Amino acid sequence: MDFIISKAKIENGGNAITYDKDALSGIKKIAAKISGDMEAVFGSAPQVHEEKASESPIYVGTVSDALIAGLGVDTSDIEGKREVYKITVVGESLVIVGSDKRGAIYGMFKLSEMLGVSPFIDWLDVKPAKMDEFTIPSDYCMISKEPSVKFRGFFINDEWPAFGNFCNKRFGGFNAKVYEHVFELLLRLKGNYMWPAMWSAIFPNDGPGLENAILADELGVVMGMSHHEPCLRQGEEYKYLRGKDSIYGDAWNFLTNEEGITRFWEDGLKRSGKFENVITVGMRGEADTAIMGEEATLKDNIDLLRKVLSTQNRLIKENVNENLDEVPRMLALYKEVEPYFYGDENTKGLMDDPELEGVTLMLCDDNHGNLRTVPTEEMRNHKGGYGMYYHFDYHGLPVSFEWFNTSHLSKVWEQMTTAYDFGIRDLWIVNVGDIFSNEYPLGYFLDLAYDFDRFGTSNPNSAKEYTKLIVKQNFDGKLSAADMDKCAELLEGYTRITASRRTEAMNDKVYAPFAYNETFDMLEKIEKLMSDADTLLNKLEGNTRFVFYELIWLPLTANLNVQKMWLLTTLNHAFAEQGSTYAMTLAKKINECIEYDRKIVDELHTIEDGMWYGMGLSEHIGFNDWCEEGCKYPVVHTFEPANKERLIVSVKGSDFYTEGKFWTGHVGAVDAFLDPSKDEAELILSTAGRVDCSYEVENPNEFFAISEEKGVVAPNTIKILKVRLNREKYKKGDMTPEICIHCSDGNVVIKLPVNTLSDIGCGKKADGTFYWLGRTLDMNEKMIDAPLHKRTWPGKLELMNYISIDAVNYTNKTDSAEGGFEVIEDYSRGLDAVKAYPQDIIFGKDKKEYPGLSYKVQVPSEGDYKVKLYVNPSNPYSRDNVIFFGISANDGEINKINMIEPDFAVGDGNPYWSLVVTENKRVVEAELKLRKGINDINVYAVDPNFVVQKLVIHKAGEEPMPSYLGPKETFKF
Asked: What is the 3-state secondary structure (H, E, C) of 239-282?
C-alpha cells in the first residue's frame, strides 16, 4: 500500500512523527522542525511523540534504537556507515533510519526536501508551495550515500559590522538563539562542521555559558575554531583573560609565557573537549599574525611549532582522549605556517613529523578562490588526510570583499574538484563572512562536498545544474518554468560580472572606456540584468517576492549598481577628456547610483520588520587599499561648455575622436567591416558646447547606409549613428570608402575599409582558420576632399593588427595516453575555458605525452609574433614556483614556458599575486616565428592548474589597444 501524507490525516492525528523513548535529544528537536515543515506544506502540523500508535506514522531514529529494531526494518545495508540514512515504506508506515545521529537528521530533512521544502525555509523564511496530499509508493526504498568529504562546513568570519549588528539587534548577541538558526541551515545543507564568529565573540561563553556548544553537540554539529585558535579557545577570549596577575599570563607567546598559554589551552579542552569537535592545533601570533618576529629563522619557527604541537597533543591525551587517533585534529597550513611544514633544502620541515600523525593537514586557497599547494602523490597517504579552507569572503590584501556575494560557481567547481582529485577529502570549510547573500555559493559548496559523484569532476555542467536546483528548491510551484529559467539566468549573469572584477575592487580605471566597447558592453549587460530582475520582482507578491528579493534581486542589484556606477565614472572621465558635454549626463547618472546604493541598504535594514538589519553595513565602494580606510566615492568630472556649436565624432570601439576642425581635425577609421561577417558599425556624436549642433553626412557610397544622415545633437547627449554595409552591393574600388560628417565649423572624415572573404585569402571551404583582418590605410588617399590641415596625418594607419581567439574554439584536439583538454563552460570573466584532465597529474617527461590543442591562423607575413595567453590566476601546485605549459608553431619544437612570474609569491604585498587575484586573470606571453599564410599554433598542458580562456596573436612591437578583458574574438572561417 502506498504511504500517504495528507492534511486530512494530520488533522485527525495521523502521520505522527514517532521516535524511540530513549531517542537522542537532537533527533527529537529535528523531528519537531520536520513537523513545522509539514505544517508549512499541509497547513497542519503532525504530532511529535514517543512510540505512540497513530494512522500512517512516520518513524524516525537510528539503527541502535529499539523502536527501529522492533519494526523489522533491515538496517544491515547502512550499519557501520557514516552519516547514511534509509527511507522505506513498511506496511502502513514510513521509516527514516540513520546509521548514526546525523544520518537520521539528514534523512528527516530529506523527507522535507521531498515535500518541496527549501533548505532555506528557516534561514531565509522560504514558504513552500501548499499541497493537500503527498504519496510515496509502497515499494519506495532509498539509501543515501556516504558523504564524499568527511567534515563539511562554513566559517562565520569578518562579522562586523554586518553579522554582529544583525545578531545584537535580532537575538541579543552571538548566543544559542542565533546559532540554532545557523546550525539548522548547516544541517539542511548537509553540512556537519563549522567555525563560529570570532572577531568579538566567544562561542563557549556567549550561549550564555556553554549553551552554544551544548546545542551544537545536541544537533550533531561538529565544532572547530578558526585556523589560528587552538585547543577550542578563541583569541578573543585570551584578550579578556590576560593580565599581569592572570593565571594565563599577559603574553600570547609560547616562548616567554609557556606555562600561561599551556594552562589556557588545557582549560579550553577541559571545558569543551567533551563535545564533538575537530580540535585546531598549532599556533599563530595574535590577531592572525606570524608566530615569531622577523628576526627568527625558519628553523626557530619550526622548532617552536613542533614544541607547541607536542604540548597540545599531550593536553588532548590528558583531557579529551588517551587515544589521539580517535580525536579529530587539524593544523592549518595557512600563510607563513605553510613553509614551516615544508621546510627548505637546509631545514627539515614538519612534514612526516610524529606530532602530526593523525592530524588533518588543512591546506588553503590564497583567500581569493585559487588553491595554493596541494598534496603530491607521495603525501596523500598521510594519516589524518587533508582539508581545504576556501573563501567566499575575505578581510585582507589586496582588497577585501565582504559585502554581498561575488563568487561564480564554475570557478568554484574547477578549484574544488581540483582539490578533491588531489586527495583533499577529509575536511572542507569555506569562509562565508556574514552568511547572508552567500547562500547560493554556500549551498553549492556543501552539495559538492556531500555528493562529489553527482556534482564533481565527472559533471562539467555541475554549476549550471546546481543553479537550476537552487531555483527549483525555492520557487518550484510558485513561478512559471520561464520565470524559473530567468532566475537561473540572473544568478549566473550577475556573478559572471562580479567574477570579472569583485565589486569592492572596482574603480574608474579598471575597464577601458572605449577599446573594444568593453565598458559599453558591460553596461548593457548590467542594465539588462537589473531590468529583468526588477521586472520579475514587480510581478511577484508575498513571500515569493521576498525570497526572490533575498536570494536574487538584492545581491544582483546591489552589486551591479556599484559596478554600473564605476563604469559610468570611467565614461564620465573619458568623455570629459574629449570635452564632450555628455560627461554632465554621466555625472548625474553616477549620483543616481550613489543614491540608489543608499536606498538599497536602507531598504534591506527595514524590510520584514528589520529581519536583516545590519547585513548591508560592510564598506563596498572605492577601496584604495585592502581595507575600507581611505575608501573614496567616484570623483566626477564636469566643466563649463563652449558657447558655440562644436560637434565631436568618435568611432565606437576605439579611442579615436575629433571635432574635424581645420587645424586640429584628424581622419578616423572604422575597423568593423574588415571582418567579413560584420555589416554594421557605430559612430558616436556629441557636443562640446551648450547649444544644439546640426550635422549632415556626405556619403558617396551606394553600398553604405547611414541611420540618420541629417540631424541635431543636443548638449549633454550622445547620438549613435549606425553605418550599415550592404555586402551584396559592395564593389571594391581603387580607394578606401569614406564618409564625411559636416557641421557648422568642422568636417569629420571617416574611412570605411572593407574586407571580403577573397580579400583575406579564404578558400571556398570553411576549415576553422582564424584570418588576419588587418589593413594598413594610406592616409594620403582621398575620396572626399575635406578642408583639414592634418588630412594625411599620420601617413599610415594600422587597423586590426591582431588575431583574438576564445580558447574553446580550437581547430584540433590531441589527447595523450594520459589525458586531454576539456571545456569548462562559463568559467570566468564571461568566457568559457579549457583545462587538461585528469587535473592531478604532470603530463610526463616526454613531450609526446602532452595533451594539446591546435589553433589554425593565417598571418600576412613571415616573422616574429607574440602570443598572449589569458589564463587563470592559478598558484603553483607544489613548492616549486612553476606551472609549465608548452607552445609551438606548426611542426616546430615545443617551448616549455613557466606561466608563473619569477618573483611571484602568494601573499600580502607581492605585486604579481596582488595583480592576478584582483583581475582574476594572468596574461602570459610567448614568442613564435610564423610563416606567411596558414600556421598551426599548438598549446600543450604540462603541469596541473593550467586553464586557458583566450589567445591574442600580434606582430612583435605592434600591441593591440590596451583593455581589461582583451580584444574580442576575431573572424573564423
From this structure: HHHCCCCCCCCCCCCCCCCHHHHHHHHHHHHHHHCCCCECEEEC
Check if the beta carbon of residue 928 is closer than 8 Å to that of residue 867: yes
Answer whether 721's CB lies under 8 Å from 708's CB: yes
pLDDT digits 0-9 by tens, 906-961:
999 999 999 999 999 999 999 999 999 999 999 999 999 999 999 999 999 999 99
Averaged confidence pLDDT in the chain: 96
Cα 268 to Cα 204: distance, rounded to the nearest angstrom: 9
> Interior CA angle at 921 toward 920 and 926, to 5°?
170
Closest CA to 834 of 966, 677, 949: 949
Q: Cα(394)–Cα(402) distance, rounded to whole angstroms?
A: 6
pLDDT tens for residues 686-728? 999 999 999 999 999 999 999 999 999 999 999 999 999 999 9
Residue 773, C-alpha cell as written in the block: 583582418
DSSP string, 581-634: THHHHHHHHHHHHHHHHHHHHHHHHHHHHHTTTTTT-S--S--SSSSSTT----
* Angle, helix 409-421 to helix 462-475, in steps of 10 degrees: 120
Closest CA to 125 of 178, 181, 166, 170: 181
- How big is the chain by its Cα radius of gyration, in Å? 32
What is the chain's length?
973
Per the CB < 8 A criterion, the answer to whether 347 and 301 are in contact is no
**Non-local CB neighbours of 914 within 8 Å, separated by 6+ positions:** 397, 398
Q: How far apart are CA 131 and CA 43, in angstroms?
A: 8
Q: What is the 3-state secondary structure (H, E, C) of 29-45?
A: HHHHHHHHHHHHHHCCC
H or E stretch including 926? strand 922-930
pLDDT for 466 equals 98
Residue 736 and residue 779: Cα distance in Å, rounded?
Answer: 10
Summarised one tens digit per residue, pLDDT across range 377-396 is 999 999 999 999 999 999 99
Distance (Å, whole) CA 497 – CA 26: 42
**Cell match 486530512: residue?**
8
Helix (H) / strand (E) element for 836: namely: strand 831-837
- CA distances (Å), origin 31, targets 171, 198, 296, 616, 675: 24, 31, 55, 34, 65
Q: Which helix (H) or strand (E) holds 545?
A: helix 542-548
CA distance 580 to 189: 53
Alpha helices in 175-253 (DSSP H): 176-188, 211-219, 235-241
Amino acid in position 633: Y
How much is the average pLDDT of 228-240? Answer: 92
Please say whether the beta carbons of 261 and 253 come within 8 A: yes
**Nearest alpha-carbon partner for 942 in 892, 890, 880, 899:** 899
Residue-wise pLDDT tens digits, 414-453: 999 999 999 999 999 999 999 999 999 999 999 999 999 9
Tell which residue, 346, 331, 262, has the closest CA to residue 299: 346
* Cα angle value 686/721/751 (rounded, 5°): 95
Burial of 757 (0-12, 13-18, 19+ CB in 10 A): middle
Contacts of 92 (CB under 8 A, 6+ apart): 1, 3, 55, 56
pLDDT reported for residue 288: 64
Decide if pLDDT at 6 tops 90: yes
* Percent of the chain clearing pLDDT 70 (strictly above): 100
DSSP 290: -
Looking at the chain, the whole-number percentage of residues with pLDDT higher than 90 is: 95
Rounded to whole angstroms, the Cα distance separating 681 from 809 reads: 25
Q: Which CA distances in Å does 451 have to 415, 446, 616?
A: 16, 8, 33
What is the grid cell recorded at 646? 562644436
